[in-house]
Design goal:
mainly alpha
Length: 94
């Protein structure tokens, strides 16, 4: 279970960092006409991006935990994985 929590934590953090980096590039690096990008529009974009990030993170955690939950028995047992467990790992995070 500890390995599963660690995996989920790393995946969530890397996706959050990627989403924040993408947002920053889209808002501050990609040039837009000044009339389109007003301070109120940037504030709205931040709120919408934060709301999306919260919902997407929650959905991703639930779906990922559900998909990888079968590994909770195999990982601590230190036995060789079954064919099904191997397939779960190989098809895991994409």
């Amino acid at each position: 279970m500890r390995a599963l929590v660690g995996l989920v934590t790393v995946l969530v953090l890397t996706n959050i960092v990627g989403a924040v980096a993408t947002f920053l590039v889209a808002v501050y690096v990609v040039p837009e006409p000044r009339s389109v990008s007003t301070p109120s529009q940037v504030s709205t974009d931040i709120v919408v991006a934060a709301a999306y990030l919260l919902v997407a993170t929650a959905v991703g955690i639930v779906m990922g935990a559900r998909k990888l939950s079968s590994l909770g028995d195999w990982l601590p047992s230190e036995r060789p994985p079954t064919v099904d467990e191997q397939l779960v790992v190989l098809r895991g995070p994409r």
